[in-house]
């Protein structure tokens, strides 16, 4: 199914950013200062690419069709698993943003600790979430959804891509490559 192939590719990019965040946090622990501009760019990637671009496809297209057309287990996995995890992930992003703003106003060790704590909580929770979607949720959709529903989902994802524009992801992938280069991530 085109939709899940696209989402797995988006997950690969998101996982690459998770490695960047991990390296940025380790650099701070090793004595580098908090780079507030870099963390702000990372937050923009998270909010626009990972959440607004990727999670939007899941929440508005794939997940509702799975809940409607698959057995009750799909509803439980989606409504009590994936969507709850999306909300928990967003809570880490809000807390990271708050900690970063507090640190910019008052560069205190407590705010530095909160930045590192929320950033790593985000990394750990989202990577586990990505792994579940790639190994359980998407294969369930590919295997179990009727062909006409798959076509409907794929058409909706194509329309979302058309609305966003062909070059939507380019600045986020460019940022990702720049940060991977900075942190020597192959």
TrEMBL record:
Domain (Hemerythrin-like) ranges: 5-141
Which Pfam family, giving just one, matches this sequence? Hemerythrin
This chain belongs to the protein called Hemerythrin domain-containing protein
Choose one Gene Ontology CC annotation of this protein and give it. Answer: plasma membrane
Per its UniProt record, what InterPro entries does this chain match?
Hemerythrin-like (IPR012312)
Where does the record place a coiled coil?
none
């Amino acid at each position: 199914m085109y939709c899940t192939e696209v989402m797995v590719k988006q997950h690969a990019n998101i996982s690459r950013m998770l490695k960047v965040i991990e390296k940025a946090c380790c650099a701070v622990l090793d004595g580098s200062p908090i780079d507030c501009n870099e963390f702000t760019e990372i937050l923009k990637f998270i909010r626009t690419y990972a959440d607004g671009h990727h999670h939007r496809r899941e929440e508005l297209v794939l997940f509702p069709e799975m809940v409607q057309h698959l057995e009750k287990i799909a509803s439980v996995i989606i409504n009590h698993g994936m969507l709850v995890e999306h909300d928990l992930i967003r809570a880490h992003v809000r807390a990271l943003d708050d900690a970063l703003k507090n640190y910019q106003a008052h560069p205190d060790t407590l705010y530095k600790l909160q930045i590192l704590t929320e950033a790593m909580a985000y990394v750990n929770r989202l990577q586990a979430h990505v792994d579940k979607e790639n190994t359980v949720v998407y294969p369930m959709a590919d295997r179990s959804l009727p062909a006409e529903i798959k076509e409907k989902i794929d058409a909706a994802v194509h329309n979302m891509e058309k609305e966003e524009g062909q070059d939507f992801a380019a600045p986020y992938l460019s940022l990702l490559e720049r940060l991977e280069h900075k942190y020597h991530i192959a």
